[in-house]
Structures are given as structure tokens and as C-alpha cells.
Design goal:
Layout: H1 12-41
Length: 42
């Protein structure tokens, strides 16, 4: 371990995966709200 290494920085692909999961969960939450509104109006 070199002194210049970052502290426990997650690898790039892990950060990308977390990013994607976060976006997916936001999208799912919005889709649920939209579905409830549509069902409520229907």
C-alpha cells in the first residue's frame, strides 16, 4: 500500500453500480407515485 493511495476509495465499477442503483430507485419511486395517481384518477 503506497502512501499516495486514496483512503478506502471504492473501485470505479462499484461507484458506477451504486450510481445506477440510486437512479433506478428514484425512477421506481417516481413510477410508483405516477401509477398511484393514474389509478386514483381511473
Amino acid at each position: 500500500m503506497l502512501w499516495s493511495d486514496p483512503d478506502d476509495e471504492p473501485p470505479e465499477e462499484l461507484r458506477d453500480t451504486q450510481d445506477m442503483l440510486r437512479r433506478l430507485s428514484v425512477f421506481l419511486a417516481l413510477a410508483m407515485v405516477l401509477a398511484m395517481i393514474v389509478l386514483g384518477l381511473g
